[in-house]
Model the fold of this input.
Amino acid sequence: MSDRQISHSMRKAFAICSLLIIDALALLLAFFSSVQIRLQILPAFFGFFPADFPLTYTTHLWWILILCLGCLAYAGLYTKRRSFWPETRHLFVSISLAFILIMAVVSLAKLSGEVSRTSIVISYLLALIIMPLVRYGGKVLLFNIGIWEEPVLILGFNHTGCLVAEALQNDQYLGYRLAGFLTMNGESDYKPQKDYNIAGSYEQAKTIITSQGIRHIIIAAPHLPGSELVELSNGLQPYTRSIIIVPDLVGLPMVDGETDYFFNEQILALRIKNNLASRMNMVIKRIFDLVMALLLLIPLVLIMFIFSILIKADSAGPVFYISKRIGRQGKEFKCLKFRTMFLDNDRILEEYFKSNADALQEWQQYYKLRGEDPRVTGMGKFLRKTSLDELPQIINVLKGEMSLVGARPYLPEEKLSMGSFADTILLANPGMTGLWQVSGRSEIDFEGRLRMEAWYVRNWSIWLDISLMFRTISVVLRREGAY
Done:
């Protein structure tokens, strides 16, 4: 084994140990916080919880920690590199499995007199929040000090390769450091928007991989025929630990997809699913919408009441704006929003276009005015910038006309412009938020929005909805893409 291989092995072992310590500290924080909640808070509100219940967590903490970390290791959370949301999904499953096993041990070994089952449940709920956050901060820190990083080469200096490079540079959690590009024939003239390091050509790949200790390569060559791509991959495989191939399949459903193969013929197969074609999945999505909408309704009622007063004070007209939108299966419904425009907005817009040709062109491309919109009231500007004008749509969700997460509710006159995307997008209810809203919103043109929302419908999962709801909070706070 070479010195470089020994160094890489030591860094990898150190990274794993660091992650184990980070997870252990997060679990300890969850455990001891649950003890304090059990001893200090619950007895104050619920008399049937004795304040002097013996909680000997320290006696059993060693095997509880080992069991939890073992479940995380079994899920590959110390060896496989995943982006934050996909990994958090695996983290939730592993934590749930670990605490089910803990409860089983406590029950079967009759340890309920020594370990509070209430504290275990609280620990579980806290761990679901604490561990992803601590892990995120820990991985970013480890990446910045050079422990959680893995050099990677991208083979293919083209548009696809640069998209991959940008994704890697924006995701420190994933832990890949771009060592450079390997160029192929005909790529020397490509001019990207950013400056990237060109490590060499494909013919120099073996030398560069060996000299720089590269263990992972990403092949971004969608222009290559399948036979050449296979030959390229097979030629590099002996010198690397893994090869990631980025195929020319943008927009293909990926969530919950499966890879398969036909052994004798050596043929790779991709199994894709249409999750929202399942009646059971539609029922699950509806239950999720109802539960979350009812939980959100109570705090939102007060906020909506305050906004109603401010809207009435700001300009003449009703509080709510009601418009016809296209729902599931093309059925029209009345969509609720706070009114953000003056009552004679059509006349104002027509006059504005007469003296602003650029604004008319922008309207035709984005179906929105991304800059100054003369139709919008003073209060409306605030509501639109924060996306709070859509809060009344919680009523549409409760009525079953919309979902919390879904495609944008389109106008009836936009259906023709949706083209073939309409068949996919209208399989599900439109949403208060969605993939378009967290991915640039008004910065994305109409066709780009349609592609995103069709991709969402094809790739739907409860976990995707949960992740988009959390991402919506971040986008709203930063006011990204809202006009």
Observations:
- The chain has a mean pLDDT of 84.
- The chain has three domains: 3-144, 150-248, 277-341+376-478.
- The first strand starts at residue 150 and ends at 155.
